[in-house]
Specification:
The complex is a heterotrimer of chains A (about 180), B (about 575) and C (about 325). Chain A contains eight helices and two strands; from the N terminus they run H-H-E-E-H-H-H-H-H-H. Chain A has about 180 residues and is mainly alpha-helical. Chain A has a domain of about 120 residues: Cytochrome Bc1 Complex, Chain D, domain 2, CATH 1.10.760.10. In chain A, a hairpin with a 6-residue loop joins strand 1 and strand 2. In chain A, helix 5 packs across helix 8 and helix 7 packs across helix 8. Chain A is globular, with a radius of gyration of 20 Å. With about 575 residues, chain B is mostly beta strands. Chain B has a single domain, classed as Methanol Dehydrogenase, Chain A, CATH 2.140.10. In chain B, about 5% of the residues lie in helices and about 35% in strands. Chain B is globular, with a radius of gyration of 22 Å. The N and C termini of chain B lie far apart (about 50 Å). By secondary structure, chain C is an alpha+beta fold. Chain C has nine helices and twelve strands. In chain C, helix 7 crosses helix 9. Classes of the chains: A mainly alpha (about 180), B mainly beta (about 575), C alpha+beta (about 325). Chains A and B meet through helix 6 of A and strand 29 of B. Chain A: InterPro entries: Cyt_c-like_dom, Cyt_c-like_dom_sf.
Chain lengths: ~180, ~575, ~325
């Protein structure tokens, strides 16, 4: 190999040094725009805020945002009623059936404003950005096709197939059957 | 003058006896259905309730009518099974606060009681209503619980004379538990005593004489919690309250401490997971037995109790029987709270025994964890080994306990208290060793303090048992069978396929035509309408994993069956 | 020369201060301090000796005759043998010295005051356990210890590996999720020391500081009793409004202020936040202004931390900062 081959290859290696730029938080103006979703009078379905599309819909496709959504799911007691997505005193979130609509706006409104049959409103407990992070995570939980981006794996008791396998596994075997 | 006096005495006697009239009719019904004719029972009335939720509240019979309360949002139906053409007399639909729909878990369901020619309805969303049984018209209506805080009413109220007693549910939402009394004719609240907090809130005064040393002290309902943790301490009075006319005392269990994760609440966490004896006039406590101090597995002790008179260790005695979710049958002296026996009726590995002298359980160190982490195969698993309301038969001396023999893997994690949301702090997966039965009907010989026999079931039992004087025990199973077994031997005598699992107690009564009827409200909430995904082993607080292998029910919602003899 | 003398104080700046291992204030730190100088001096001497020998080898003329070469060869063999022996002795000696020092640090003291530290990204949860549960104290980001009494810190972590290091008082000890470690040390004299997280734990690892305040035992008991009390009541309308905002906005979902309706435990306990010298794990000194700045936009002060920017109006922010300043 000639010396200039090596130099060229090293330059090519440097091309991989691009780091994902991540904002610590949304700009207040953007956060306010994210809060103003246009919805139908029944509170189901609607148009997502244009700024969400301008950002590239990160809450559904970015692994960091999904991981934040997963952290918030545990931190804000979603597991108290919805367990790990299987439901209990509240409906399941991983079966792909959405009582109030499967799109992002409906899920966002369910969390922010609550729903009549027992879902509390989290408008005063979570910020807009956090609610969107949860929305993205829930969409990935209830997805019917897998995507490349997934949140971090569970360090805790694994009670259901991991988020990156949710659509394809029928059931996680129990410890007696050799499962985790 | 004398006839008037006689009439007056008769009226007074009737007024005293009337509150017990309903069970008398049940007694009469019970001995008409016997092992000889049970196989001829056939349905005379079926009714679909249209609700996909678990049907936990048993129907109530009074004056030949059957009152059925469907799950939240409630419909209260009055049925006359003796009338072949128009059995539905009236229907009452109370206004429902939708917030409680997300709190219908963990055994809380509301309930209805018939007493003194009145019907008293406690709805899940916190309404206490008195109705006229003949027409269903509302006599009075009051608010007792706040679903916005996660507080609900768990069971049917107890009515004694002109007083009504009821406790709240909401341990899983961090709600402070209480028991309250109302005036039955008017609905005026009389008193309310809490399960945690200072002595003045709990009702501990100079008359309080606990039997065990650890329960003596000042303001233990505060001192045995970290600062301010008692405000979200749980301990709801979700189960039935028992009245003892001889001693003039109320007995009730208190629920589990909140949150489920014990790491956040070091200390004995009084007065949760124990038994209280209270004075019905003032609600002041007479004694307390701490069944599970610190409640390390969050099981609580709010199950049904029973008072029996039988010969214990040679001499006849009145005993209070308390089957606890921790898998043991506690025999107590109702006057003092002394613990006489605490033997296990189900496989138990969380405790190795109970020290009867000081009333404290001997914990198995391998099944205790006071930090975040995972405990494997803790028996019994939440919500406990008592699957449904037990029943006692005087003829056989046996206490029939529908049991759940499940064990759990429980993972403790951080819990945040946010008002109105689930305050648990644990993920649970329930199950047993492969091949082991997950449920059983245990016939507990009270005098001998051991099980006489048990009927094993493939799935945990969720509904109550009915023991009839005719020598039968009726119970419903989660795989959709209503079974009648011989009360002495446990031999299966009759079985009926309900089409959906039964998680409530069968009821026996005499109809308006003087004939005996048996009713059961079936509906286990596993139909498609409730949306539980069993791919998550912790769904439904771990129960979905325990019920794997159980096919979905044939009926989508609940069904009421009333059976009669030909 | 002038420039060099100006640089000298810079070099010596690390020798004292409230976060310096070269300024020991307790017996454990003194042991480590002695060990540090032993190693430094020994290794410096060895290094100088090696450099001298290297210099000699570079400047040496090759031997002229065969006999001189053989003599030189025998001499260098003796030198090498001597160096090997010296190395073995020095290494053994240093190992033994290290063993003596760490044995002294690791010894447990049964009458130690127990403090539990739990590391979160990027703050410290402090628990003072007590046999009476209602005397258990829960606070955050600052610990007080009595002088002259051994203190055992039981270390745990909530999410990733952290490490507790208060250089003036003792060495480092990791805080590993799922494992409990402990550290025992004593502070001999009163003082305030700064501890630092010493294991990389994420974006704000560098801003995860804890302050250790050593004070006489009576002062420590007074502090403890004051901390156990519920939050002070608001004293004017603005503080009252601040409490209302704290209870009704997202604050109550994550923070606890005992005595109000706020009972969250995802973030530090704020019941006596204004009694602590710093907020946000050593980021800013506690003043009304810094509390307001933190609440207004925590992400611009400590980007990536878990406290979101809650949108408050200017009046609400004023009220909340007034109330938080009251929480002494």
């Amino acid at each position: 190999m000639k010396p200039w081959h090596a130099a060229l290859l090293s330059l090519l290696l440097l091309a991989g040094c691009k780091r994902e730029t991540r904002q610590a938080r949304l700009d207040p103006a953007v956060a306010e725009a994210m809060d103003s979703v246009a919805t139908l009078p029944i509170g189901i379905n609607g148009r997502p805020p244009p700024v969400l599309l301008a950002m590239g819909e990160p809450y559904r496709s970015n692994a960091y945002q999904l991981s934040q959504g997963k952290r918030l799911y545990a931190w804000f007691n979603c597991q108290g009623c919805h367990t790990d997505g299987g439901g209990g005193s509240a409906p399941a979130l991983m079966d792909g059936w959405w009582r109030y609509g499967p799109d992002a706006v409906s899920i966002f409104l369910s969390i922010r404003d609550g729903r009549p049959n027992g879902m509390p409103a989290f408008r005063e407990r979570l910020t807009t950005e956090q609610i969107w992070q949860l929305t993205g995570y829930l969409q990935s939980l209830g997805a019917t096709s897998s995507t490349a981006a997934t949140p971090g794996r569970n360090d805790s008791m694994q009670t259901r197939p991991g988020e990156n396998r949710v659509p394809s596994m029928s059931r996680l075997p129990s410890p007696h059957e050799g499962g985790p | 003058m004398r006839p008037l006096l006689r009439a007056g005495v008769a009226v007074v006697l009737m007024a005293m006896v009337l509150p017990m009239a309903a069970p008398c009719a049940q007694e009469a019904a019970r001995d008409r259905i016997t092992p000889a004719n049970v196989a001829t029972l056939r349905p005379v009335l079926t009714l679909r309730t249209g609700s996909a939720q678990p049907h936990l509240a048993a129907p109530v019979a009074a004056d030949g009518l059957l009152f059925v309360l469907t799950p939240f949002p409630h419909h209260l139906l009055a049925l006359d099974p003796a009338s072949p053409t128009a059995p539905l007399r009236w229907r009452h639909v109370p206004e429902a606060d939708g917030r409680a729909a997300g709190q219908a878990c963990c055994g809380a369901s509301g309930g209805v009681t018939a007493a003194g020619n009145r019907l008293f309805l406690a709805t899940l969303d916190g309404r206490l209503t008195a109705l006229e049984p003949a027409t269903g018209s509302v006599l009075w209506d009051s608010r007792a619980a706040d679903p916005g805080a996660g507080e609900t009413l768990g069971a049917a109220p107890l009515v004694v004379g002109d007083r009504l007693f009821l406790g709240n549910a909401g341990d899983d939402f961090g709600v402070r538990g209480w028991i309250g009394a109302w005036e039955a004719p008017t609905g005026r609240p009389l008193w309310r005593r809490y399960t945690t907090g200072p002595d003045s809130d709990v009702g501990i005064g100079p008359d309080f004489r606990p039997h065990h040393h650890a329960d003596q002290g000042r303001d233990l309902g505060q001192a045995s919690w970290p600062p301010s943790a008692w405000r979200q301490g749980g301990g709801g009075v979700t189960g039935p309250i028992l009245w003892d006319p001889t001693l003039g005392l109320l007995f009730h269990g208190t629920g589990h401490a909140a949150p489920w994760n014990p790491a956040r609440r070091p200390g004995d966490n009084k007065w949760t997971a124990g038994l209280f004896a209270r004075d019905p006039e003032t609600g002041m406590a007479r004694w307390f037995d701490s069944i599970s101090p610190h409640d390390p597995h969050a099981l609580g002790s709010a199950t049904a109790n029973a008072l029996v008179e039988l010969s214990w260790q040679g001499r006849p005695r009145r005993l209070l029987i308390h089957p606890d979710p921790n898998g043991r049958v506690y025999l107590l002296d109702p006057a003092s709270g002394e613990m006489l026996s605490a033997e296990p009726f189900a496989p138990v590995n969380s405790t190795t025994g109970v020290d009867l002298a000081n009333g404290r359980p001997q914990w198995n160190g391998a099944k205790l964890l006071d930090a975040n982490g995972i405990l494997r195969e803790v028996c019994p698993g939440r919500p406990g080994a008592v699957g449904g309301e037990p029943d006692f038969s005087r003829d056989t001396g046996l206490f029939y306990i529908p049991a759940s023999l499940l064990c759990m893997d429980i993972e403790f994690r951080d819990a945040a208290y946010i008002r109105g949301t689930g305050y648990t702090g644990a993920n649970i997966r329930l199950g047993t060793a492969p091949g082991a039965p997950r449920g059983a009907l245990v016939a507990w010989d009270v005098a001998a303090a051991r099980a006489a026999w048990r009927v094993e079931e493939p799935f945990p039992l969720g509904g109550g048992a009915l023991a009839t004087a005719g020598g039968l025990v009726f119970y419903g199973t989660r795989d959709g069978a209503l079974k009648a077994v011989d009360a002495r031997s446990g031999q299966l005598l009759w079985r009926f396929d309900l089409g959906t699992g039964a998680v409530s107690r069968p009821v026996g009564f005499l109809g308006r035509d003087g004939r005996p009827y048996l009713a059961i409200l079936a509906g286990d909430g596993r139909g498609a309408g409730r949306e539980i995904d069993p791919r998550d082993a912790s769904a439904d607080s771990g129960l979905a994993h325990a019920l794997r292998g159980l096919p979905p029910p044939r009926e989508a919602g609940g069904v009421l069956y009333v059976f009669g003899l030909p | 020369m002038k420039r060099a003398s100006r640089l000298l104080p810079l070099l010596l700046a690390g020798c004292s201060g409230w976060q310096s291992a070269l300024d020991p204030r307790g017996p454990s730190a003194q042991d480590l301090h002695g060990l540090f100088w032993l190693f430094t001096i020994t290794c410096t001497v060895i290094w100088l000796a090696v450099m001298l020998v290297l210099l000699a080898a570079l400047l040496r003329r090759p031997p002229a005759t065969k006999g001189a070469a053989e003599a030189a060869g025998r001499r260098s063999a003796r030198v090498v043998g001597g160096a090997v022996a010296a190395t073995v002795l020095v290494v053994a000696g240093l190992t033994f010295a290290s063993y003596l020092a760490t044995r002294a640090i690791s010894s447990d003291q049964p009458e130690a005051l127990v403090i539990r530290l739990r590391g979160y990204q990027w703050w410290w949860e402090v628990t003072y356990p007590h046999e009476q549960p209602d005397q258990t104290l829960l606070t955050a980001n600052e610990i007080h210890i009595p002088t002259g009494r051994p203190v055992r810190i039981e270390l745990a972590a909530a999410d990733v590996i952290h490490s507790f290091w208060v250089p003036n008082l003792t060495g480092k000890q990791d805080m590993i999720p799922g494992r409990s470690n402990s550290l025992v040390f004593t502070a001999e004299k009163p003082g305030t020391y700064r501890a630092q997280c010493a294991e990389f734990c994420g974006l704000q690892h560098a801003h995860m500081a804890l302050h250790v305040v050593a004070e006489p035992p009576e002062a420590f008991e007074r502090w403890r009793t004051a901390q156990l009390a519920e939050a002070p009541a608001p004293e004017d309308a603005e503080e009252e409004e601040g409490r209302r905002v704290l209870e009704s906005k997202a604050c109550a979902a994550c923070h606890t202020v005992r005595g109000t309706e706020a009972a969250g435990n995802l973030g530090p306990d704020l019941t006596h936040v204004a009694s602590r010298r710093f907020i946000a794990a050593g980021m800013l000194p506690t003043t009304r202004g810094s509390l307001a700045a933190w609440v207004a936009d925590p992400q611009s002060i400590k980007p990536g931390n878990n406290m979101p920017m809650v949108s408050l109006t200017a009046d609400e922010l004023q009220a909340v900062s007034a109330y938080l300043t009251r929480l002494r």
